[in-house]
Please model this.
Amino acid sequence: MKSFFQLILMFAVAVWARVRERYFSRERILKIRDKKLRRLIKYAFRKSPLYRKLYQNIDISKAKLTDLPTVNKEYLLKHLPDSLTIRGISRDEIVLFAHDPDSVGKYFKNRYVLSTTSGTTGIIGYFLMSQWQWIVQKGVEFARLLKHRLSFPYVYKYTVRTKLRWAMIVASEGHYITYLLARLTPKQAFYLSDIRIFSITKPMNKMVEELNEFQPHYVHSYPTFLEALAYEKLAGRLKIDVDFMSSGSEPFSDHAREVIKKAFKDVEIVETYGTTEAICLANQCRYQKMHINEDYVLIEAVDDENRPVSDGVASKKVLITNFINKLQPLIRYELRDSVVIDRNYKCECGSPFAVIEVQGRSDDTFYLMTKEGHFRAFPPIPFEALFLRIKGLRQYQLIHEEQNHLLVRYIAQDSKENERIEKEIRERFAEFFKDTDVADNITVTIEESGEITRPPTHQKVRQIFSRVKPPPNII
Ligand SMILES: [Zn+2]
Model:
């Protein structure tokens, strides 16, 4: 019964979110935003010991947003139980649940959603949200992802005429948000659509086989992975027709879009900007502009010192405030993303929301050669997923040094663990390549590295990159 009400709530939120974007003026949206912001600040101050302490010398009824101190992942981690607006949850309970493989895809204490960020930067973040807030978030994401497609003919087509088959190709071995998004859904939703989760680390030939069998209408994955699927389709191995594709976590290259459009003729592609801390940051419209969901989040583009940068200027960081999560409020929470915001852009789609461009990560796809001389695309995210599961790994870098020769550089949290970590990396790679047709044609070198630094031109360490030029003919 509870899940039935959740489903109703999810659709109601989705309809409301769609109505706002379609019919509300920018002024009205900003009023809603400011009201929600005030309410969240007051609530956090009243209920969370962390924010009470942080704002103790500030008159929060008068303060401007920029008067409030910022928070970050490290700070929140240090005061984890105090960052919550409910008492009685300990750090140990959270950590234990987060690291128990059997708890993945389940509700924490049967009522909270616990998600973690990847540990590859050294620090794992834990984020909690109530089940009802989670449902609201899903409703918003649903409406803002589908946008104009959330119309009567579309809904009719994919509920009454045929059940929407929805493939999520994501990292599925931890409490990762995209996976939870597919998994923690009111169960009645599965009568309306068939959502299937495919693990990103599955070998491509197996993936192709399973997708051919499933025949999805809609695929969500990472741009580089969608591009790799397009090569499979052009080569005639992948036999699916897709209506709609969405992607997150990486920017789309023009080349990837081109290849995908060539392979999947009428497909519509949209990008999303979301993080574990706030899934619904921004979604792309049909004119390829990313709109900030300003009635649910507030994004400030700032420099290194957290001072605001002007519209049109690339930021060094962003500060996000998420209005949906009241269990663990995030107010002016720092993210290491570089964005460009334009508040005055009048988009053809008519959205009242500001436009944002995100300069995301830029990892490379590796083009590895079979013994017969054919090239196969290996996108970066499955490699990343291989590293995510290795305990005690502080940092890594994967480099395609020369054609079919890979180099792994890593730093362990404790150098006494080097041997075990190396062995695990070697095993994971062997397992990953085992069923592919490049398996007998590649070499992998693994070496402990003193330091892995980011190049001066990049915000983040380039974790997965190629020194080998892509071949002219990939199929
Ligand atoms: Zn637009």
